Amino acid sequence: MSADRKKQLAAEAALDLVHDDEIIGVGTGSTVKWFIEGMAARRLRIRGAVSSSEATTKLLVKHGFDVVDLNSTGELPLYVDGADEADPHLRLIKGGGAALTREKIIAAASRRFVCIVDDSKLVPVLGRFPLPVEVIPMARSYVSRELVRLGGRPIYREGVVTDNGNQIVDVHDLEIVDPLALESAINQIPGVVTVGLFARRPADLLIVGTDQGTKTIDRSTL
Ligand code: 5RP
What we know:
Rossmann fold, Alpha-Beta Plaits, six-stranded mixed sheet, binds ribulose-5-phosphate
């Protein structure tokens, strides 16, 4: 089965967790695209969506969903998003699509974070996927030197400007044995806007598309 079909399976399973009349958070990426298209196909009547990127906003609007400002919603009952990597504790690497800052904000502001992935995203230890870090443009070189001190090999993602007007540095060659500590350490570097490590706020439920269908991992049962 193709990775894209597995993404679709995971996204469809997440649709069962969406309730009419709620405002939900919606992530970014090709897996989430299936989720949005699935909401439209099933004619789910959510009250609105808080969007994590301009790309997601476009897709939501195209399918007739209201996009609302997080400042007007209070806590969200549900946030659905993909990931670039997930470890057995449901800690994640995100930001392959450069939307990590808004994604992290929405994840923090949501009661339940449901992450949808295909099984190629599962890893025993995070770090095979280069860790995205969103930086204030003037701080890019300074932050990169600090990331080298932390053991990484930062590479500037040329030509990419985030929805917040910032730049992305992807950190290669990390074996992230203590994601919580590394997330804190990178957060301390002046000029860092967001690091794409989701350890402080991991997923609550991971839905994985596999050749055999979907499997779910609930963090409360770990
Ligand atoms: C965007 C993200 C995405 O969730 C991540 O890149 C996964 O994308 P896809 O569903 O296309 O594999 O973090 O910033």
